[in-house]
Write a structure and sequence with these properties.
Blueprint lengths: L4 H14 L5 E5 L3 H7 L14 H8 L3 E6 L7 H13 L3 E6 L21 H21 L6 E4 L14 H4 L1 H18 L4 E6 L5 H11 L20 E5 L10 H15 L2 E7 L21 H22 L3 E7 L31 H4 L1
Parallel strand pairs: 1-2, 1-8, 2-3, 3-4, 4-5, 5-6, 6-7, 7-8
Helix pairs in contact: 1-10, 5-7, 8-9, 9-10
This protein binds 2-acetamido-2-deoxy-beta-D-glucopyranose (NAG) (5 copies).
């Protein structure tokens, strides 16, 4: 408990007074099949014996599985379909995260897959065909998709350089996104489309993106048209504490209120995490009063929930979920951050107390 007791209690009271849980309590556990096939990892659930990790997540309250899919390589379609079957079998809905890349796509990397066209017309057609076939494959195996991200952290567009906003303006990116949405809607009208940006706390960047992407001159409805507001069901955001001290909860609150008041779309924090272990001198966190420990992990997601509940009180129930990124990736506990360990499990696969966040977010 130590010095963190006060902030925990204060946060807890705030949560108790004003916050109710959102419909979706998500975990991105895309790495699970890879870990199972390449290591002897085990996860220990309520039974005190090894159990499938997705079962443990569901037992703790997770009801949404976020699954990344690359156009080739480790996290290919075959992999995504297999993991989706397991998630659905324990009662989870699916948030499929399309990277449109043979490897990681994020705010700094968005490479055109090998063998794909490298002109806008060709890429638009390719995005449409690829997305349509992928969504069809999920439908055909009996795991229809509830939410699908058209791209991952596309603040500067996707399929670079063709769809790179800083290089070619908003028109190519907007048309590529519209093609992805058309493909989804053509085969699975009940699937909710998600546009996903990094740095959800950064209102100026979020405003720049949506102001531009919805403002392209080509407004025709078929392929070749730009993204429209009605194409988008959910606006999703990453929100991490380690990549800049401006990523405060109050900045997140302003930004989310801006988004919902401007576009009236559902919103979701589709990626977040908080360290169980961190040298915060080397890696300052954006909310330094929250401890970098297991208790702090719960405070962090409670506080995000409080922010989203505030949006819901002001604008109706627009905030629909929070997703923790890779809570069980043993062997990669830093999860790409400067902090040593952001997992909700120990290195030997026991669940930390913070796993209870899935019952409360
Ligand atoms: C997908 O990756 C798996 C290994 O994870 C591999 O066995 C399979 O051939 C790949 N499938 C496709 C369609 O690339
Ligand atoms: C997409 O599919 C259509 C219809 O099968 C085909 O005509 C077109 O060439 C495909 N586009 C690409 C880029 O392969
Ligand atoms: C919208 O597009 C028009 C025409 O290209 C341009 O003049 C205007 O600045 C754009 N607005 C935004 C917010 O990007
Ligand atoms: C952080 O916020 C301050 C004050 O608003 C601003 O001057 C600074 O440019 C921001 N830094 C980043 C990296 O956005
Ligand atoms: C934490 O990071 C600081 C700054 O890089 C370094 O000087 C210090 O030795 C680190 N502390 C530990 C315990 O590793």
């Amino acid at each position: 408990m130590r010095g963190s007791l006060l902030s925990y209690v204060l946060s807890g009271l705030t949560v108790f007074r004003t916050v109710s849980a959102l419909p979706y309590h998500g975990a991105d556990f895309s790495s699970l099949l890879l870990l199972e096939s390449t290591t002897d990892v085990t996860y220990i659930g309520f039974s005190s014996t090894a159990q499938p990790y997705e079962q443990i997540l569901a037992d703790y309250g997770a009801n949404l599985a976020r699954i990344r899919i690359w156009t080739a390589g480790t996290y290919n379609l075959t992999y995504g379909l297999e993991l989706a079957k397991r998630a659905q079998a324990v009662g989870m809905d699916l948030l499929i995260d399309l990277h449109y890349d043979d490897t990681w796509a994020d705010a700094g990397h968005q490479a055109i897959p090998a063998g794909w066209p490298t002109d806008l017309a060709g890429l638009t057609s390719q995005v449409y065909n690829y997305t349509k076939e992928l969504v069809t494959a999920f439908n055909e195996q009996g795991t229809p998709i509830q939410f699908i991200q058209i791209g991952n952290e596309i603040n500067d567009g996707l399929l670079w350089p063709v769809g790179q906003i800083s290089v070619n303006g908003f028109t190519p990116a907007s048309e590529l996104l519209h093609a992805g949405v058309l493909a989804v809607r053509s085969v699975s009208p009940s699937t909710n489309t998600v546009i996903h940006l990094a740095n959800g706390w950064d209102e100026a960047d979020v405003a720049y993106f949506y102001g531009g992407v919805f403002n392209v001159s080509s407004t025709e409805e078929g392929l070749g048209g730009g993204l429209t507001e009605s194409d988008v069901d959910v606006m999703g955001f990453s929100y991490y504490p380690f990549y800049g001290t401006n990523a405060t909860l109050s900045a997140l609150s302003s930004s989310m209120e801006y988004v919902v008041s401007s576009y009236s779309k559902d919103i979701m924090v589709v990626e977040t995490d908080w360290p169980a272990v961190c040298n915060t001198t080397a890696t300052p966190l954006s909310e330094p009063t929250i401890p970098a420990d297991v208790e702090g992990q719960t405070i962090w997601t409670d506080d995000i929930l409080a922010v989203l509940n505030g949006v819901n009180l002001d604008y109706g129930d627009k905030a629909i979920g929070i997703v923790y990124w890779e809570p069980g990736w043993i062997g990669n506990a830093a999860l790409g951050s400067g902090c040593a360990d952001n997992l909700l499990v120990t290195s030997t696969g026991e669940m930390r107390e913070s796993m209870w966040m899935f019952s409360n977010m």
